Amino acid sequence: MAAGEIADQLGIAPATLSFHLKELAHAGLATSRQDGRFVFYAANFEAMNALVAFLTENCCAADCGPSCGPVVACKPVTLVRNARTAPRARSSKA
User: Fold this and answer.
1) pTM check: above 0.85
2) Which of the residues 24, 80, 81, 83 could staple to 29 if both were Cys, CB 3.0 to 4.6 A apart?
3) Which CATH code for domain 3-64?
4) What is the pLDDT of residues 52-82, one digit of tens each?
5) Domain boundaries, the chain
6) Alpha helices, DSSP H only, in 1-94?
């Protein structure tokens, strides 16, 4: 499928899509071919299935205990706003 057609179907900017498709092709997850001024992309399902299988086996199915949990860098901060210090809208006089 042509990159422009994919961009239209997804509703995203063609330049943004081209960047991501180029990265997928570089990773071997997609193939590309040039035809005149158009670039046509196709998914490499064999590579995608291999990636999903690897991730499933090594990330989803592994029981590695608490070391697999998310890392918390710092405690969440709760902000409290005081009504007296909240910014006030200014009225404009014409």
Assistant:
1) no
2) 24
3) 1.10.10.10
4) 888 888 777 656 665 555 555 555 555 555 5
5) 3-64
6) 3-10, 14-26, 45-55
